[in-house]
Amino acid sequence: MRRNSLGGRLVLATLAFCLLFTVVVAALRTWSAWQNNVAAMSGELQLIAQVYQRTLSKSIWDMDRESLQAHLTSAANVASVGQVVVSLQSSNRAPEVFQRRREGWRPSTLAPVLHVKLDYEAFPGSREAVGEFSLYGDERVLWQRLRAEMVAIVATQVAQSLLLASLIMLMFSRLVTVHVRRIAQHLSQLTPLNLDTKLTLERDRRRQDELSLLVSGVNQLQGNLSDYLERQQRDEKELIAHRDNLAALVRERTLELEKTNDRLESANAMLDGLARTDPLTGLANRRHFDETKEIEFRRAQRNGQPLSLLVCDIDEFKRYNDAYGHAKGDQCLRAVARAIESTCARAGELVSRIGGEEFAVLLPGTDAQTGTLLATQLLQAVAELGIAHRDSGTAPFITVSIGLAQFDAERMQSFDALFEQADTALYLAKSRGRNQVAVAEPQKSLDDKWS
Ligand SMILES: Nc1nc2c(ncn2[C@@H]2O[C@H](COP(=O)(O)OP(=O)(O)OP(=O)(O)O)[C@@H](O)[C@H]2O)c(=O)[nH]1
């Protein structure tokens, strides 16, 4: 028997109850047996008294002491008798007492005592009291009889209890335990894949009790779980389909967004380029020049590298416009721009149109000497364009004047100072007759600083 089995606990509880019941019943039956024994002993004493009453009375009447003694001894030998006493009736002296007692007998309050008057009828109609006959029951006999009965009582009660416990155990095991184990085994083997396997018990299907309720409850639960899982799987499939659709939609939208972004970026780049380009010549415009000049100026300040600036202006351009018209003037501007661009084409060099017929060339990493060389080549390149200018007082073709200044870290704290020097040099080139380069020398005073 397993200690933790329900059947075992039930049997233990039954046994405990039966033990208690046995004790109570045995006590009641013992008390009852005692009462019966006492009554039986009283009956026996009465029977003995009836048997000896007449013979004793006669022995007393006849004064036959031997016979009296013999009868007393005989009565005292009866099993249930502990002591017999005969007291002789006497009117003028104390009554004479004869007694016989069984060995080891002691007076008892539990054993019955019987007192019987002895009288003798010597002749019909003359009944005379001759004494009293007392019979004392033997308590030991009562206990002896009770012991024998108690063994039987306890034995039958214990046997009854054991039988009852065994029966309960057997019934419980056959009716409950075996099915509970089957239910436990069924539940432990359940998985989402075998939820359709119904629970059945090996017993009469018509039986309707708590176990059948439990079985239908388990099967109902399995059915609900199965439905729930089916629903969940269906939902998951739908979810996956939605997710795939969503992913495709997101990819599609992302692609569209990327394309739109690309278009926007190119449009921005184009706009940016347009915003920083002079529409007439395609050169960098004033805005682009202003952005770049600060960057290059700070870089020259930081690195201590040379930075030169050329400011070019077409000579007598007003007269050109007047002579050839504005459209021709535009063409001339474009041609001069190409010439400057092709002369100053090194990486980092920035050619920009900063005014009507005025151009600026930023020459990072170029000192005044190399700048002068470049400016001279530029003069040459414009002259070689050979754009006729019949009204020019400088030459019969288009020429430019160039002012050059080099960045001086000690004296120039802003680009404006460099520009001012280049512009002043340009003014000098113009005043010296145009079509030439003037280089600013910032160390010298304003009067003698131009070469
Ligand atoms: N065709 C054309 N002409 C322009 C443009 N921008 C400015 N101009 C002209 O350029 C001329 C500049 O004249 P001035 O500033 O007097 O200078 P200049 O006549 O070149 O005289 P110097 O500079 O002293 O040699 C003006 O007549 C402007 O109208 C342009 O985009 N296209």
Automatic annotation (TrEMBL):
Domain of life assignment: Bacteria
Every GGDEF domain range: 305-442
Gene Ontology CC terms: plasma membrane
Reaction(s) catalysed (UniProt annotation): 2 GTP = 3',3'-c-di-GMP + 2 diphosphate
Keyword NADP attributed: no
Coiled coil ranges: 218-277
Pfam family of the protein (one): GGDEF
Known EC number: 2.7.7.65
Keywords, comma-separated and alphabetical: Coiled coil, Membrane, Transmembrane, Transmembrane helix
Cited InterPro entries: Diguanylate_Cyclase, GGDEF_dom, HAMP_dom, Nucleotide_cyclase, Rev_trsase/Diguanyl_cyclase
This protein's record includes keyword Transmembrane: yes
CDD domains documented for this protein: GGDEF
Transmembrane segments: 150-172
Entry's Gene Ontology BP terms: cell adhesion involved in single-species biofilm formation; negative regulation of bacterial-type flagellum-dependent cell motility; signal transduction
GO terms for MF: diguanylate cyclase activity
Enzyme class: transferase
Name of the protein this chain belongs to: diguanylate cyclase
Organism in which the protein naturally occurs: Rhodoferax koreensis
